[in-house]
Amino acid sequence: MITAKNLMSKNFLKIDTNDHVSKLIGHMKNKNTTFALVYQGKKYKGMIDKKFLLTSRVDTSQMKVNNILKKRSKAKTCFFVPKLKYDTTLDEICKLLATTHANALPVIEKNVVKGIVTVKKVLQKIRKQYQGLRAKDILRKRLTSALETEKIGKIIEKMHLNKIDKLPIVNRAGKLIGIATISDIMKYFHRWPITAQKLRTKGIKRVKSPDRDTGEKQDMLKTPVSNIMIPAQVCATADLETSMPLIIDMMTKENTSSVIIQEKKKPIGIITQTDLLKEYVK
């Protein structure tokens, strides 16, 4: 039987509650990761990811991770993720990852974090279960996309409302020309002048930044998404006949959480890591 102990890695990013959020973001970029485990001294407190940093009013130069911890205790978004034990089964891990939308879960024994189990590792393990299946057998998700002329502020709002971190970008003819991701938006903004409670492009209350004033941030939110999107040529795409093991390989090797399914160069759907996890535990 495959368990968390078989799947876990001891290599993960740690951040202390007394550290500034700017330090957290820097470590995330350097480690090329989307999450970090939060500690208060030696005590594990929870997990934080990039999505929260995007959809919250965060002053990275001033706010400490401890302030985020306080915010998470009153919010519905993922922070206090489920804890695994050495003997947690693969099926149970898939269920927990799918329902929490977390990129990883901590393995804890006797109140000590022993390691983490990532979505990537789980997908590699369940890959053989998808032998003989093609994209058309799995594709069920209604596609949310955006026009290349839409502004970044609108893209952020769509991501938040649909609980997604990637958005296919199309031209007027409906053909795929790129994809916008949370990571790219984060790189574009030095700070994120938006809130999870009420996303909008006008009337946003902002904390004054030492390097960018409010007017510049408003202009950035009004920038067309085509300025920051990843071109279609380098997006992870497939067609309806693509085998599911190949799609899983694309996710794990290209470090992407989703693959866009096209028909005649037009996006018709998207297969995500969560789709695969849910399908596995049916």
Question: How would you explain this protein's 3D organization?
Answer:
This protein has 12 helices and 12 strands. It has 2 domains: 4-128, Roll (CBS-domain); 135-280, CBS-domain (Roll), CATH 3.10.580. The strands form 4 sheets. The protein has a 4-stranded mixed β-sheet with strand order 6-7-8-9. It has a 3-stranded mixed β-sheet with strand order 1-2-3. With 282 residues, it is of the alpha/beta class. The longest helix is centred in the first third of the chain and has 11 residues, at 21-31. A hairpin with a 2-residue loop joins strand 11 (258-263) and strand 12. The protein has helices at 4-7, 21-31, 50-54, 65-72, 90-100, 119-126, 135-138, 152-162, 182-188, 214-221, 244-253, 273-280; strands at 14-16, 35-40, 43-49, 104-109, 112-118, 146-147, 166-170, 176-181, 230-231, 237-239, 258-263, 266-272. Helix 5 (90-100) packs across helix 12 and helix 6 (119-126) packs antiparallel against helix 11 (244-253).
Write the layout of secondary structure elements.
Elements: H1 4-7, E1 14-16, H2 21-31, E2 35-40, E3 43-49, H3 50-54, H4 65-72, H5 90-100, E4 104-109, E5 112-118, H6 119-126, H7 135-138, E6 146-147, H8 152-162, E7 166-170, E8 176-181, H9 182-188, H10 214-221, E9 230-231, E10 237-239, H11 244-253, E11 258-263, E12 266-272, H12 273-280
Parallel strand pairs: 1-2, 6-7, 10-11
Antiparallel strand pairs: 2-3, 4-5, 7-8, 8-9, 11-12
Helix pairs in contact: 5-12, 6-11
